Fold:
Amino acid sequence: MPGYARPTRLDEALQLLAGGEATILAGGTDLYPAHIARPPSGNIVDISAIRSLRGITEHRDHWRIGATTTWTEVIESGLPCLFDGLTLAAREIGGVQIQNRGTVAGNLCNASAAADGVPPLLALDAQVEISSVGLTRRIALPEFLLENRRTALARGELATAVIVPKPARAALSHFLKLGTRKHLVISIVMVAATVEHEGGKVRAARIAVGACSPVARRLPALEAALVGETLDAMLGAKADASQLRALAPIDDVRASRTYRAETALTLVRRTLEQLGAKG
Structure:
C-alpha cells in the first residue's frame, strides 16, 4: 500500500484496507489536530472522494446516512422532525468550517465520550453499517462504541453508513448540551431523547446522555417509566436521579462528577419538558 491513497470507489478502498494497517481519513477534523506535532505513522486511506459514501437517502423502513455525509449536509437536508435532535447536535459540532468538513461516521469512529453526534443517534436507535472485502454487516450503535476512543471496527473494516430505522409511530426528538460557553466548546453534559407517541401518550422513549460515562449511554429505567405517560410539559417531572445510575461521570478540568450528575438530571428533565411541549 502506498503511504497515502485517495480511492474513488468503495471496493478500491476496502482492498487497500485489507492490505494492512492504515489510518482512515474522512473530514480530517479529528485526525489533523491529533498530529500537529507529529505526522501520522503508517499508511493513510483518504475516503473523501468516494461519492457512494455521501448523502442521506430514505428507504421503505429506514434512512441511510452515508459515512462521509457532513454535519452541514445534515443541517440543510430537510429531514423530518424525528431528526430534530440530530440536527440540533450538528449545529453544536465546532464552527461552520468544522461542520462543513466533519463527517457523521467520523464522529462515531473517533469514539470520544463527548462526541455530540452520539447521543442523538443512540436516541434514534441507529445502527452502523460496516463493510470489508466481500462482506457488509450492521451493528447496533451501543455495540459499536466499546469504550472511550475504541470501537468494534476490526482490521480491514470501514464504517460505510449510519442506518436509522423508521419508528412505528409519530416521533419527536430533542437535544440539549451544556459547555463552559455557548459555542465552540467540548460538552460537559449532553442529552438527547426520542419519544414515540400516539393518542397523546408516550408509547416508546429513548434517552441518551453523553460526556458522563466512557461512552454515551441510554437510560433504560427512565425509558420504561415514561411509557404510558401523557405527552405534555410535565413529562420532565417523571425523571429522577435513580434512573440515571447507569451513568459514570468523572472529575476533570471541565466539571466535577457531582456537577455532571446533577446537570445530567436537569438536562434530562428539560429535554423531556420541551418534547412534551411539542406534543
User: Anything to note?
Assistant: The first strand starts at residue 4 and ends at 5. The chain has a mean pLDDT of 95. The radius of gyration is 19 Å.
